[in-house]
Structure formats: C-alpha cells, structure tokens
Amino acid sequence: MNLNLTLVGQAISFAIFVWFCMKYVWPPVTEAMHARQKKIADGLDAASRAARDLELAQEKAGQQLREGKEQAALIIEQANKRANQIVEEAKDNARAEGERLLAAAQAEIEQEVNRAKEELRAQVSALSLKGAEQILNASIDEKAHAELVEKLAAEL
Amino acid sequence: MAGANPTPSEYIQHHLQNLTFGLHPENGLGFAHGAKEAAEMGFWAVHVDTIGWSIFLGLIFITLFRSAAKKATTGVPGALQNFVEILVEFVDQSVKDTFHGRSSLIAPLALTIFVWVFLMNLMDLVPVDFLPALFMALGVDYMKVVPTTDVNATLGMSLSVFVLIIYYSIKVKGVNGFVGELTLQPFGKKMIPFNLLLEGVGLIAKPISLALRLFGNLYAGELIFILIAIMPFWIQWALSVPWAIFHILVIVLQAFIFMMLTIVYLSMACEDH
Questions:
Q1: Catalytic residue, candidates B103, B152, B160, B213
Q2: Domain that holds residue B120
Q3: Where are its TM segments located (chain B) (predicted)?
C-alpha cells in the first residue's frame, strides 16, 4: 500500500460529506435538542410558578380564614350585647309592669278599704243612732244630734 | 501485503484484511503479514484492530455517558446531558414498548448495544484510507477501523445475546419449560425429533441472523466505499458523498435493529406460552 491521490479524493468526499452534515443533518438534530431543553425549562418554570401560586393561594386562604374568624367573633359579641340588652329591657319591663300591677292592686285595695270604711262608717252611724235612740228612749231630734253622731263616727 | 503500486484487487484485499495477531505455525507468535498467514493462524488468533477499536469506542461511550450522569441535574439539562437523556429515553421507551417482563438488565443492555454498535458503525463514515494511512505511517500494515465489518465482532455480540436468551428462558420457564418449548411445539408429543429440529433451527438462527445482518450491511457498505476509492480521485465524491449520506441511515438503522431484535428475543425468552 502506498499513499496516492486516492487520499486526496477521499479528503474531497469527506469535506463535502461533512459540509452536507453541517448543512442538513446537524441543524434538525440540534433543533430537536433545543426544543427538548426549552420544553424542560418551560416545564420547570410552570412548576415553580404553580408552586408560587399555591403559596399565594394558601396565604390568601389563611387571611380570609382569619378575617372570617374575626367577623364571626364580632358578630357573636354583638349578638351577646344585644341579648344582654334584650334581657335587661325585659327585666326593666317586667319590673315596671310589676310595679304598675302592684300600684294598681294597692290602689284597688285602698279603694276597697275606703269603701269599706265608708260603709262601716255609715253603718256605725246608723247603728249608733239606733242605739242612742233606744238608750234614750225618747225622741231625739235627729237633726240636732246628727252632727254629734257624725263626729263620733268620724273618729272611728 | 500489497506492493508499491497495488492492483485494484490487491487494494481491496488489503483493505479487507484485519490486523491479526496469533501463533503462526512457521513464523511463531506475531502479527500476520497478509491474508494467507492470517488464515494459517487458524482459530486461535486475534483481530487486534477490531478489538482495539471496539474497546476504544466502548470507552468513549462509557466516558461520555458517565460524565453526563455524574453532572446530571434535575434542572434544565446541559447539552451533553440533554443528548444522553434523549438516547436513554428513546431506548427506555423501546424497551418498555416491547419487553413486558421485569429485568434491570435489559434496558442498560439495549442502551449499550445501541450506542456501541452505532459508534462502531459510525467509523464507516471516516474515509476508508484515512486511518489506515495514518497507521501505515506508524508502521502498522493492516488496519480495519470498522469493528462491525468483522464478523467476529458481530457474532461475539450476538452470541452474548444468545447466552442471555438461554439464561432467561431457563430462569423464567425452568429447564423443563425450556426443553418442553423446544420439543413439544408445534406438533405435540409424537413428533419430538421433528419439533426439536424445527425449534432448534429457530433458536440457533437468532444469533446467526443477528450477527450476519449487521455484518453484511456494514461489510457491503465498507466494500462499496473501497470500490469507490479505486476510482479516479476527482470523481470519487460524486459517488462517495451520496453513499455516505445514505449510510447515515444505514448505520443508525442497523444499530437500532440490533438493539430492537435483542429486546424482542429476550422478551420472547421471558414469555410463557
């Protein structure tokens, strides 16, 4: 074997072949590789974005929960206050009503007492008159002594 | 060895001769000077170029993938990791599509076969005289740089696959199952010798066809490159370039076929009927 122009011929062929590969074979391959890299990068990006979104959402949810609790506490407090108020009002009303009833009863009792007194007084005067009439056995001037008897009755 | 001005047939024969190391009956231990001496060395000789190049290319594969694996990140992959991942994903997908058993061996095996055979085939695209001329300058007479054009290399790989086929057959089906598969199909108990012949041929044909398919394609491709190299130097490119471009397809396809058939054979070995 010896070196001759065959080597040059092969060098020419090889150069053309390499050029062909550079031009038509390599670009699609590298493009596919880049596409894959990009896909992975995008995927990782999306994943980290999703993680961040999740964090934000959790934070938001926590905040809303806190707000909700606060509102609930406020409402409960208000409700308690209102309930106390109602109870107080009811107590006041009841007390006033009771007092009113009591006053009415007392007034009625007083009235009854007065009426009874009046009746009693009238009866007593009539009775004392009758008694005096019988004691004296004489005709007594009713008119002249009525004043006396009434004074007596008033002292009862 | 060819003279100063080799005839075309000498040139071709020179290119098709491996660098053989072995024990010659007359000249003793050493490199063979020509095809005749190489043949006289018989079976107990070694094609140093085939072994050397295949180991060299295997080391490239291992180093490349190992370094990519060591530097692998879970983030956006770099160029090398990206490339390696594409290959691994591709092979893994092929294995998953075809092989339904469970084996931690088969995917790495398929990856190794694919990349290694591809790299060995790729040497075919290097012009046929470049590396031989370089080694000639270094004093090495014969140098076949494409290991897959040596039937020893392809048959060696396919026999390894054959051993795995038998190993998995026995492992999955047991000795009885394997023997039964060889003897009781397809015609039942009365035809055991015939069945054995049929199934035996089918079994043996797997590694042989695997090896010869790869060898034949690459050997033919190499031969055509050599034939083109005999033509006048100023016209070589007109044939050499189209053939090289076509060969891009061939080398990838042959590597893929070798890998795919390995997976198929092993999945057949792992399947119970």
A1: B213
A2: 49-270
A3: 44-65, 105-123, 151-170, 214-235, 241-266
The answer to the question of residue B13 being in a domain is no
Coil, helix or strand at residue B266: helix
Residue B161 lies in a domain: yes
- Residues of chain B with C-beta less than 8 angstroms from the C-beta of A8: 233
A7 near B CB under 8 A: yes
Q: What are the tokens at A98?
A: 């009771």
How far is the C-alpha of B61 from the C-alpha of B84, rounded, in Å?
A: 10
- Spatial neighbors of A40 by CB under 8 A, at least 6 apart, are B76, B77
H/E element holding B20? strand B20-24
B156 half-sphere exposure, CB direction, 13 A CA radius? 13
> Residues of chain A with pLDDT > 70: what percent?
94
Q: Which residue in chain A is spatially nearest to B229 when comparing CA positions?
A: A6
Residue B178's identity, in one-letter code, is: F
- The minimal CB distance from A9 to the residues B86, B132, B234 is found for B234
Number of domains, chain A: 1
Q: Which of these, B211, B188, B204, lies nearest to B257 by C-alpha position?
A: B211
* A2 touches B129 (CB < 8 A): no
pLDDT digits (tens, 9 = 90+) for B38-95: 888 888 888 999 999 999 999 999 999 999 999 888 888 888 888 898 999 999 999 9
Q: In this structure, is residue B28 part of a structural domain?
A: no
CB-nearest partner of B248 from A2, A25, A44: A25
Judge whether A6 and B129 are in contact, CB under 8 Å. Answer: yes
User: Do A9 and B236 count as a contact with CB atoms less than 8 A apart?
Assistant: yes
> How far is it between the farthest Cα atoms of chain B?
68
Largest CA distance in chain A: 194
Please confirm, yes or no, whether B209 is among the known catalytic residues. yes
Q: Looking at the complex, does the CB of residue A11 fall below 8 Å from at least one CB of chain B? A: yes
Give the whole-angstrom CA distance, residue B115 versus residue B63: 12
- From the list A96, A62, A10, the residue with the least C-alpha distance to B236 is A10
If you search the block for the tokens 């394609």, which residue do you land on?
Answer: B217
Residue B213 designated active-site: yes
**β-bridge mates for residue B223, sequence order:** none
Q: At residue B35, what is the residue type?
A: A
